[in-house]
Design brief:
Length: 194
C-alpha cells in the first residue's frame, strides 16, 4: 500500500494572524505541487473557526495547478443547501478536471461549533440526518437529471444540476476527523505557512 502525502493549507492561521490574503495560500499550494505532494487540503468553518471558504479557494488553486489533488478537510455538508452544494462541488471538480476529494464530517461537539450550526439555521440534533441526506442528494444530482427526493430534511421535485462533475458520479468522499482526512491511502499533514 502506497502512502500519499498532502499539505493542509493554513487558511485559519492566515486569518488568525491578520493576513487574510489568498495569494500566499495559492502559492503554497503551487509549491506543494512542485515539491511532489499528492494533495492539498482546505479546512472548513463558517463562524466557529474563521477561515477562507474552502470550495472557492479550491477553485482558485485548481486554476493554478495541474496535478495535485484538492481536498476539503473537512467539509460540513449539513451546514449547506444540498442543491447549491452539489452545484458548487460539480463546478469546482470541472475546474480541477476531476482532482477534487471531499473530506466530509458531521462536526465535533463544542460550544463554538453549536453556535455555528445555530447561526446557519441548522439544529444541532439534526446534523447527522442533514449530513446523510445532503450527500445522497449530491450523488443523485451528479449522476442523473430530474432528481426527485423526499427525505426528512429536504424535498426535490425533478431537479437537475449542470454541469455534472468531471468524474462520473462525482468526487470521492472520505470521512474526516478533525484536521485529518482518512482513507486507505491518503493522509493529510498540517504544515505552517512561512
Amino acid at each position: 500500500m502506497a502512502v500519499e502525502l498532502g499539505v493542509l493549507i493554513p487558511t485559519r492561521e492566515a486569518i488568525m494572524s491578520g493576513r487574510p490574503e489568498t495569494a500566499p495560500l495559492i502559492t503554497m499550494a503551487e509549491r506543494a505541487e512542485t515539491a511532489g505532494f499528492d494533495s492539498v487540503w482546505i479546512g472548513d468553518s463558517i463562524t466557529a473557526r474563521p477561515r477562507h471558504e474552502p470550495l472557492t479557494l479550491m477553485a482558485a488553486i485548481a486554476a493554478r495547478t495541474r496535478r495535485v489533488r484538492l481536498g476539503t478537510g473537512v467539509l460540513l455538508p449539513a451546514l449547506r443547501n444540498p442543491v447549491v452544494l452539489a452545484h458548487l462541488i460539480a463546478t469546482v471538480d470541472r475546474v480541477a478536471e476531476g482532482r477534487v476529494i471531499l473530506g466530509v464530517g458531521i462536526a465535533a461537539d463544542g460550544p463554538a461549533i453549536r453556535k455555528e450550526f445555530a447561526a446557519c439555521g441548522v439544529p444541532w440534533d439534526r446534523r447527522v440526518g442533514r449530513f446523510v441526506e445532503t450527500l445522497e442528494i449530491c450523488r443523485a444530482l451528479w449522476t442523473r437529471d430530474g432528481v426527485t427526493y423526499q427525505g426528512k430534511h429536504f424535498t426535490l421535485d425533478g431537479a437537475t444540476v449542470e454541469p455534472k462533475p468531471h468524474r462520473p458520479g462525482g468526487p470521492p468522499c472520505r470521512w474526516g476527523f478533525g484536521s485529518t482526512v482518512t482513507s486507505s491511502s491518503v493522509k493529510c499533514l498540517p504544515l505552517k505557512l512561512t
